[in-house]
Amino acid sequence: MTFTHSSSIYQTQWPKRLSNLIFWLSQISIPRWLRTPLLGFVANRLKINRTEMEHPIHHYTSINALFTRGLRQSSRQIDIQTNTLTSPVDGTIIGFGHAEKNTSSHFIKGHNFSLPELIGKKNSTHINRYAYISLYLSPSDCHRIMAPTSGQITQLDYIQGNLFPVREPFISQHSTLYNSNERTVVTIQSNETKLFLVAVAAINVSKIDCTFAPSFITTCQKTPTQTHTYSPPHTTTKGDWIQTFLLGSSVVMIMDPSVTFSQTLKVSQKIKYGELYGTK
């Protein structure tokens, strides 16, 4: 991979340190009397839809609590059909389609990934062809990640990496950005097929946690790669909250090639968690 001088700094330790500082600042408890004006200002600047929030703005004790907020159950309708796949996040569709393992999958011009590097060589061993979809979370989006299908969570992989911003011009400059950044890979076994949900970290987003593994958080990991297998596996239902971006970034899903995408799906389209994007 070729890096420009301006982006090579993202391969140093300072992005992690900066992200840790921002996370620490975002967790500072805000006095109750200051919450409405301060968090209201943040919500307005980021165009957060306050009518969907699970609680009134004064309920949130920190900026991080606002970012990782839940939503009113009535604000999202989960497609409950057993043969459908639903978006795990509120976000924007960066790309989707089908690809061969030995070729690159293009999300947008100049952006691709190597499947073995993205999800790990062992995970990709028996995959020749697959379906994929990539979603970007903006600061205004809910930062919780929901199960896109019902099934069994059998494995969690952690892959250490850089913290390049997942936005332009970095996406176009670095054709394998997703392979370079820190990420987690959650394996969901659904009937006879597997789905790999990849949560990709970025600058200011160096922390990803998991509801099914409370002791795990990406910032605490010291080894380059880790694999946690679960026996018995964790049962999850479509729409269950399974992970959180402690700010926000991108999600990539790798699925069985039999997946058929909705005919109305478009790149750059906004999508909400629970909305149908394909059938299996």
Summarize the structure.
The protein has 280 residues and is an alpha+beta fold. The chain is built from eight helices and 15 strands. The strands form three sheets. The protein has an eight-stranded antiparallel β-sheet with strand order 10-5-6-7-12-3-2-14, with no helix packed on it. The chain has a four-stranded antiparallel β-sheet with strand order 4-11-8-9, with no helix packed on it.
Protein architecture, described:
The strands form 3 sheets. This protein has an 8-stranded antiparallel β-sheet, with no helix packed on it. Strands 4-11-8-9 form a 4-stranded antiparallel β-sheet, with no helix packed on it. Helix content is 19%, strand content 31%. The longest helix has 15 residues, at 32-46. It has 280 residues and is α+β, with helices and mostly antiparallel strands. Strand 6 (183-190) and strand 7 (193-200) form a beta hairpin.
Number of beta strands: 15
Q: Within the largest sheet, what's the order of strands?
A: 10-5-6-7-12-3-2-14
Which structural class is indicated by helix and strand composition? alpha+beta
Order of helices and strands: HHHHEEHHEEEHHEEEEEEEEEE
